[in-house]
Specification:
- By secondary structure, the chain is an alpha+beta fold.
- The protein has 3 domains: 5-45 and 70-222, Phosphoenolpyruvate Carboxykinase, domain 1, CATH 3.40.449; 226-295 and 381-581, Phosphoenolpyruvate Carboxykinase, domain 3 (Alpha-Beta Complex); 297-375, Phosphoenolpyruvate Carboxykinase, domain 2 (Beta Complex).
- It is built from 16 helices and 31 strands.
- The strands form 6 sheets. Strands 1, 4, 5, 6, 7, 8, 9, 10 and 11 form a 9-stranded mixed sheet that branches. Strands 12, 13, 14, 15, 16, 17, 25, 26 and 29 form a 9-stranded mixed sheet that branches.
- Strand 10 (181-185) and strand 11 form a beta hairpin.
- The radius of gyration is 24 Å and the shape is globular.
- The mean pLDDT is 96.
- The structure holds oxalic acid and manganese (II) ion (MN).
- Residues 69, 200, 249, 276, 298 line the site of oxalic acid (OXD).
- Oxalic acid binds next to loops.
Length: 582
Amino acid sequence: MTTNPYLQKWVDEVAQLTRPDRIHWCDGTEEERERLTREDLERGSLEELNQQKLPGCYLRRTPEHDVARTEQLTFICTSKKEDAGPTNNWMSPHDAYEKLSMIFDHSMVGRTMYVIPFIMGPVSSPYSRIGVQITDSNYVVLNMRIMTRVGKVALDELGDDSNNFTRCLHGKADMDIHHRFICHFPEDNTVWSVGSAYGGNALLGKKCLSLRIGSYFGNKEGWLAEHMMIMGVEDPSGKITYIAGAFPSQCGKTNLAMLVPPVSQKGYKVWTVGDDIAWLHVGLDGRLWAINPEAGFFGVAPGTSYKTNPNAMATIQKNTIYTNVLKTLDNTVWWEGMDGEPPRSGIDWKGHPWTPASGEKGAHPNARFTAPAKQCPSISSEWENPQGVPISAILFGGRRAKLNPLVYQTFSWNDGVYAGATMSSETTAAATGAVGVVRRDPMAMLPFCGYNMGDYFKHWIEMGRRLKNPPKVFHVNWFRTDDSGKFLWPGFGENLRVLRWVIERCEGHGEAVESPIGYLPKKIDITDLSMTPDAMSELLKVNRNTWRTELASQKEFFSQFGSDFPKELWQEHAALENRLSS
Ligand code: OXD
Ligand code: MN
């Protein structure tokens, strides 16, 4: 399939190590998809869903120990430990290659080894990157075909003599969690992942290449690989403003990217460019331009409904792989939080008979859908523009009951970086049992930064120096509560009201009042909302004492980076301390 000597040599080396019975080069054709699907159906590792109601849709159940990313088994393998920084697990490249080689050794005997050339990013974009994933999992191939652009198109883009591709080796081995490792070798542009078939661990174009390896190269080459959604908001005059946003997990990033304006917001439309990852480059015009490197959505099913995210629901009605959801009696799917009544019975994610009375979850809380982005009704006409879209505003989200106001604009780029570096969320009872524990997750990148996070913050500061016309940076918090613990803000589609103020600020005419933490909106339009002006002022309140406690906690977090931490962020921290006491 290729005459590229670097690629051929690498595939030969991997085959020498893993000893597959067969090697199959994925070409990305429909015939290939049908054949792989048929094989998995025959093997019983995939189930066909109701093809009248859900054409092209299949169900997969995974082992119970393989349902989520395993951060404790994820490593950054740089020659020097300090290059991985204090927030990553580190293993030396020598030890990691040795340990994983032992697991990969002869691990594909009796199996087919698939070679998947893929592109992250639009075809012919100067910002796209090529990867080649080797795997012995049909399920992984089928998912990669949705999440990336695979086959001939990627080989053509790579060319016959380029060594510039990420070597992504994945194997199931014996699927023993004690033999599971997800290792990144940024210095070698390589990822090795073994022992898991879960998306975040096994679809190596996603978190591994697009974020960990991507952020490492972004730092070297002067761009940013971020855990951000990208959306375009069209106003009634037809003008579209592009916004990128990072949010802690479970804070509605996908819902925001696919927002449906409520009827009260006449004439507005939202266009989805991406729901999870953004690659951001400085354009010749000094603005920040974003591409979505992915071609699909790997979304959390529970909680997704026609009420919370009608565009996601419309997207997943065909050509979708469902993982660990409940199967209903008529061979469709269900999960907790879907519209309407639960089915009277079904087969749960573990493959057992289920009824609502069983007291068990029908779907795993991290059950997923994998669906092509082009099926999304709100997909932007620009989502595959090779140049990307120009970003006017960056949102950093938080989930804090009493701290951050609904929205504020930061004073400057560096103050915006500080808002991103201090992003945090409080745990809910559902997550851990311990309510209100603050988790820090800078830029939502804590598990995804492929190098020292202190250097990552410096890189953000440096990017600002190169942007003649930087996006304005905002912090949002949809989760502020009243004294009885009730959310003050309705969220979902109504978030558009906040985005309208954000856009007005970008255009230079939104009214604001200065506070110690940044510019607060003078007014957010709450017409037709059953909300009192008192609730609005509570949502925008800045409590100086709560912020002083927060400053102490931020200091503790920042200190772990020692001399790697940028002085500019300490300056922003000190400036806020001063403003709070003046
Ligand atoms: C995540 C995901 O874990 O997108 O962030 O799956
Ligand atoms: Mn994500």
